[in-house]
Every structure is written in structure tokens, then in C-alpha cells.
Amino acid sequence: MSDQHPELDLATLPIDKFYIGGRWVDPSQNNMISVISPDSEKVIAQVAEAAEYDIDQAVAAAREAFDKGPWPKMAVEERNEWVRKLSAAIVARTEELGLCWTYQIGMPYNVARIFAPFLTNAMDQYIEIAENMDFVEQREIAGEGTGFLVYEPVGVVAAIAPWNVPINTMLNKVGPALVAGCSVIMKPAPETPLEAYIIAQCADEIGLPAGVLNLVCAHREISDYLVRRSDVDKVSFTGSVAAGQRIASVCGERIARCSLELGGKSPAIVLDDYDLDMVAKMLIDGICSIAGQNCALLSRVLVSRKRHDELVGKMKDIAEAVKIGHAFDEDTVIGPVAMKRQLERIEGLIAAGVAEGANLVSGGKRPAHLDKGYFMEPTIFANVSNDMRIAQEEIFGPVICVIPYDDLDEAIAIANDSDFGLSGAVFTNDLEKAYHVARSVRTGTMGQNGPRNDFTIGFGGFKKSGLGREGGVAGLKAFLEPKTVLLDGVPEGLRVG
To answer: Which CATH number is 266-448 given?
Structure first.
């Protein structure tokens, strides 16, 4: 690893405190969370770890801001101005946020500094949506009087983000919640807390009203305590299916609202008319990006039996030419996976694939030239049967399965034979066939000729991939409660539409 690379300066970031009620406050206990670089295996930061008392304080502050503060009662335009200021303050720290991404999960810095600008402005779309949305709709009703459908903020929101793309996922919770008029408690993943500290620091710097945005850091047990708090009205969570099931169960018991963006095992259906060189490059690029730690990863490749071996050969050639290296090496294409336990899980599933009879074509082991860091080679399995663990379980690593099919109907059936339904793609130049496949596959997003997603329209999954949507109008409405109001007439000065 090169000794010359940008340093992460944490001196001005109050990571030994929490942001609660508009102030940086000391934790109730002295426990700390160690943030470990997967690239060097060294501790790069230690942040305060919350206990139940700290959660209570954060929830109380958010509750006070929502129940008694001006925030939910402000005009939408006024809230938008606050969110616009917050977004601008965050965007101004894009370079720092990209550096955090690299240090915390090993995202190659040459990639992080390119993509970070596209991730840090995630809140801006919700401002625009709110400007064009009718929060009060007048409706015709039978008999005398006038009906209104009004949209009101859901209340106190727990925003729980994952570690793979921490800034974007957190902003896609904080942004619509704030625009809607909710108060928020941010709970980042313990592996990647630094982005949330930057968001909180930006909120403090612009003078966001006290209690509207709060920050605590915690491991699973205390995070569960946050979810169980009866005065948290909604939980917005992105992460594993197991954690999502627990959150849904708890929220179900107390009839709390929840949005869940969970796992994926997304299919790439390759039709015979499409260029295999282009498919192979896109697929290998996909498993190299964030080392395959992407819930929307195209990890199941369905290709006709007659073209299976040709596609696998092209993928193998590309994968074996990929530069695996440390995060700050300029020519690195794929860096480490985010943590030791994640590497061990990937290794275990690769072993399961071999044991079940899949053909390990390429990769499958740690690179010999790297003696530090949690690295895994890009790994290709061929002649995979869709009932194998590697075809059914989300690996969340740089592993891809190639599954042969005999006809398009079988390909669609295989694509749908999954507990997941988050994303997918169909590779074909035939627009009619592309639309037919897209409508036939049970998944939240389906793109033509590549791994395409658009948060301005909406993102989310079918089946065990989650509940609800992030992005777009649906992403904003997830933080609003519709209310029916029936009056004898229209109040003077009421702005409708």
C-alpha cells in the first residue's frame, strides 16, 4: 500500500459525543466502538457507543421537537429552505465523505472520489418533489360540505443505515423525513459511523432547530432498544433480512410504521441477440464495485445453454485481469470486503458452492500477494443450479453465479425462483422482449442492458427484499400519514394544492 495518500482528519469531528437536542453531549458510559480499516486491519477511529439512557435522551429530544417544536408545523417552503441549507453544507464536504468511504470499508479511493459527488446530494430530490406535491388535496364528497385529503408527517423516525454506501442510504432517509416534517434519530452502522457525524455537524453548523436531527451510535442490542421504543413512530431501515425481520416483528407488535430495504439476489437475463463481450464486462465490473457488497448486485446470470460456456470464458478473462489491491493504490479496481466476518461468510459460501457441485471457474480465494486486509478475488461459478445455496443466498461479496436456461420462459421462472426481488436486468436489443421480461420478473427494479437504478423514480423490493420504497414521490410519502378531513366548507386562507 502506498504511503502517500490523503489523511483522514478526525480532529474536528466530535466522535466521542452524540448529537442530541441540538447539542453535542457526552455519552452516559465510556464504551467506545472501534472502526477498523479492512484495508490495513488497523483501528482508524473510536466513536462513542450508546447505552439505553442515551437512546432515551435522543428519542425524548426528537419527541419534543416533533410534539412541541415548530418543525412539523412549518410551511413546506420553510422546511425546504432548511433542508436545502443542510444539503449544501453536506455537499461542501464531499471530498471528506469520499475519504471516509475509503477508510471505513476499503472502497478504492480512485472510485470513491468520482462517485461521492453523486451520493452526497441525495436530499435535493425530495426538496423538488415537495415543491411540486399537493399536501392538501380538495375532494368532492357526497352531500354537503367539502372533503380534504391532507398529508401530515408520520412523527419521530429512527433512520438506521447500513455500512456499504453509508452516506447515500442515510441521506435517503434523513432527506424525505425532514422535508415531510418529521424529527429524526440517525443510527449509522457501527462499522461506518463517520458520515452520520458529518451530517450532524452540518446540521449543527446551520442551526437546524434543536431535536429535529439527532445522532447516536450503537451495536445491535441497543439498536433493538431504539426500535422497541414506543415513542418512535417509524423505523426506516436498510440492511440484512434477519435484522429486517426483527424490526418488522417489533413494529408489527406495536403497529409502528416501518420501511425496509433488505437483501437481493438479482438476476441478469441474457438473451441471445446481445453482445457477450459487453455483458461480460458489465457483470465483472459489477462484482468488483464495492467488492460486490451491493444489495442490487446482478449476482445470478441466466444465459442460454448454447452460449453459457462462451460467456463464462469471456467473464473469466476479464476477472483474471482485474487489479486487486489496496484502497489508495491508483490502479486498484477491487479493494477489500468491509470486515473480517464478511470475508469469512464469503469464504464459507464459496466452499458450499464447490461442495454442491458448481464449477468454480475463477477466483475463490484470497490473493496471495496481499498479506494484510480482507481481500477476495473476483469469483465466478459456472453451471450453477438455481437450488444451490450460492444461487439462493445473498453472498454480499465479489461472487457471481452463471446459470444456463433452455428458453425464455424457463429463464423467467428461474429469475422468479428466489426469496428476493430487489433488482434485475435483461440484456437484449429487442425493446418488446425487454419490456415483456421486465414485467414478468417479480422484482422492484428491472433495467435493460445493464444494472440500472433510479432513486428519483423509486427503489425497493418485492418479497424478502423489503417493504416500501426510497426515492421519488413514494420515498417522500413513506414519511407522511394521509388524513381525511371533512368540513362544511373551505376555511378562509386555506391553501389547497
So the answer is: 3.40.309.10
